[in-house]
């Protein structure tokens, strides 16, 4: 996956902030008219993460490449701000307090393993985003979560609990694991 240009990254960050501002009744901060690069028109999975004072304030995304990247960022920004079930909807007075981060995903691929030990061996902390699935239960952590959970066992236990399963579900045989990588960038990093 080729990296986005600095201009495309800044465009997406402004687009995300503008989408949230519009939902709050603020003036449109970003005009979407203009020529989008091919990368921004290409269907790609993406997540938008909101932080307030260094703490998570919302995170919503799509794992599969079903919509053009620009459209996905715009929709996921609104969903992270107003529809993340872990948080109350963002209020107008919080808009200037949030920082936006965008994660652009590679297409998830199955991680082949036959034992829990082999799963641990194949996981790459800080590189792999992980999708855990068992039956109807599914959860994911972006690669950035490795910063808070660098231990592979703890990472997988938390991912199991996020899916609504027991912490040791990652050791069971009827489990599916997919991995993906991301390009992530934030307003703080780009001064957007």
Description of the structure:
The protein is α+β, with helices and mostly antiparallel strands. It has two domains: 100 residues, Glycoprotein, Type 4 Pilin (2-Layer Sandwich), CATH 3.30.700; 72 residues, Dna Ligase, domain 1, CATH 3.30.1490. It contains six helices and eight strands. Helix 1 crosses helix 3. It is globular and about 55 Å long.
Enumerate the strands of the largest sheet in spatial order, edge to edge or round the barrel.
2-1-3-8
In one word, what is the shape?
globular
Query: What class, by secondary structure content?
Result: alpha+beta
Rg over CA atoms, rounded to whole Å, is 17 Å
> What proportion of the residues form beta strands (DSSP E)?
15-25%
CATH class annotation of the largest domain: Alpha Beta
Q: What is the number of strand segments?
A: 8
The CATH architecture classification of the largest domain is: 2-Layer Sandwich
Mean of residue pLDDT? 93
As a percent range, the share of helical residues equals 25-40%
Low-confidence stretches: none
End-to-end span in angstroms?
23 Å
């Amino acid at each position: 996956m080729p990296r986005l240009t600095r201009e495309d990254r800044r465009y997406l960050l402004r687009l995300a902030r503008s989408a949230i501002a519009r939902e709050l009744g603020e003036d449109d901060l970003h005009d979407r008219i203009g020529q989008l690069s091919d990368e921004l028109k290409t269907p790609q999975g993406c997540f938008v993460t909101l932080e307030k004072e260094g703490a998570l304030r919302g995170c919503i995304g799509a794992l599969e490449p079903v919509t053009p990247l620009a459209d996905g960022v715009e929709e996921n920004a609104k969903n992270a701000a107003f529809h993340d079930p872990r948080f109350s909807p963002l209020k107008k007075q919080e808009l200037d307090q949030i920082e936006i981060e965008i994660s652009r995903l590679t297409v998830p691929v199955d991680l082949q393993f036959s034992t829990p030990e082999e799963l641990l061996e194949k996981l790459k902390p800080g590189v792999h985003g992980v999708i855990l699935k068992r039956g109807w239960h599914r959860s994911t952590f972006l690669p950035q979560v490795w910063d808070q959970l660098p231990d592979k066992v703890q990472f997988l236990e938390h991912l199991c609990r996020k899916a609504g399963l027991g912490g040791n579900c990652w050791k069971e045989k009827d489990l599916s694991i997919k991995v993906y990588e991301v390009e992530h960038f934030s307003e703080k990093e780009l001064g957007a």
